[in-house]
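Course assignment 3, question 2. Fill in each field.
Student: A.L.
Task: Predict the tertiary structure for the chain below.
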Amino acid sequence: MARPSGIDVSRWQGPIDWQAVKSGGIAFASIRATIGDSYTDDRFVQNWQGARAAGIFRAAYHVLRPDHDPTSQIARFAEVVGEPGELPHVLDVELTGEQPDRVIRERTLACLQELEARFGRKPLVYTADWFWTPHIGVQPWVADYDLWVAHYYWPTVSEPKVPAGWSSWRFWQHSNRGQVVGVPARVDLDFFNGTTDELIAYAGGGTPPPPPPDVEQRLRNLERWAGELDTWARGQGYDGVRPTGTG
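Answer field:
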């Protein structure tokens, strides 16, 4: 089964050509919005709007800081994002904030409940076994939330290690060193655990993303992008001729 592919992005990826990302076969994106109760990603708006215009299924994500008040954190997230995505929004749980595990557990659940109250859908939890299992572990509420698990080195790792409390995963971040057409920096890569039709259903039956282009389409894309780069280079004076007097 060919699993639909996605990416995670933030300001670190720089300006993204979302139409090129779509043409490269990316079906969904998780886009960083906020961290704690005081930080907003300065490329969130451009990424959120660009992914929508390209027809890519979107989730916004908030990075939990257990040393900040849960209500104020999610209030800021809601103010920045302003609307549901096609996919559920995501709570990124991987920081301790130098808090005891009891506080981490309590504030994780509080943020999840706040997100559901504000957006009307249970959020996803993004985490990894190395963090979740020792700090939060098995809790009676864990299985109520779908898992976006981080575990790298696919295809050497054929399936991710699922943290305590879950028996399966919905999304898998399988690399943090990906290269995707339209993204100028390395980027996190993801799979959806299902078919394209199942992803569409999970996204509420919205407009399906395009299938990955065939080889001929990929070649046409590469030729177009090469032509655009050549035009830009010539405009900058990089025409392949060494200027007189250079060493």
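Instructor remarks: The first strand starts at residue 5 and ends at 9. The chain has one domain: 5-207.
Grade: pending
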